[in-house]
What does this fold into?
Amino acid sequence: MSQEGSAISQETHYFDQRYLYAFASQAEVYQHVRTQAIKEDRTDDRINAILAAWTAVRPRVMQLVQNEAGLPDTIDVGSIPGEHEARIAEIAADPLFQKAFTGATFGVVEIDKLVAAQRVVKLAYVQRLVATLPEHASMAELIELCVSSNRPMDPIQHLELGPSVHAFSSPNSDVRFLGAFAKDLQADDLRYAQGGLPTAAIIVFVGYGSPAISVYKVGSRVVLNNGFHRVYALRSRGITAIPVVIRTVQNPSIEFPQEIAGIPRDYLLNTPRPTLIKDFLEDDFTTQIRVQERIKTVMLQVVPNQYDVPA
It folds into this structure.
């Protein structure tokens, strides 16, 4: 291979990420920067500078953890104002909402005291969200932004890679497989059949999870589960309380995920002062790195197994 041919650029597509390193372990910080940042931001000098900043901020973090022990358990959880009951009832009546949030309720929570099960912010996405926010959002507008299912989502691309092999991709990492279910065969289904005499059909769903900002309420503590970037964007605009969908957890060992976004359940629920949303607003608690751009892909393949076995 010629020298010219080997000089092919790599890692040319990236986005700016705000990384909350102050509450991570030193090993976690090193691993995150080493594996996620583009090569210009994971040099020895850059990594050493970030680790030095992490060391410098440790005394402040330790003091904060001590002084604010129990702070997340003082979060205020209020009711949606009565004049919005009709709209909330309409949202709750949506069949897809009911399936996603069986037994859930609605409430208004303080943003700063929400337990944050996340370490990173995609800044370009936040800027895009902020650009769509009203300057002074009313409660009616916040309900639409935070708990309504009527939100624009990124388009999902589809490509049939081969017989019974389908790929779906999106820049939104929330794209996911939503399950496969038997359905009654309808006349319209037959136009997709490849001959034979079809008698059964399976429907497969790909899409996004519910766009509602949702939380887990465990005792007096509230843990953010979905909608982190919207919460961050709203707080950066000075909004301090938002409507959310609330899942009240009675038995954390079976009703609460073992981890959320890689953060263990025990840390989220039992640490006296875990990471809170307000920590992302402290400049010296975060660092900005350039991270390789990526898209989320869902690959689906049907592999039939057919055998003759004794009756």
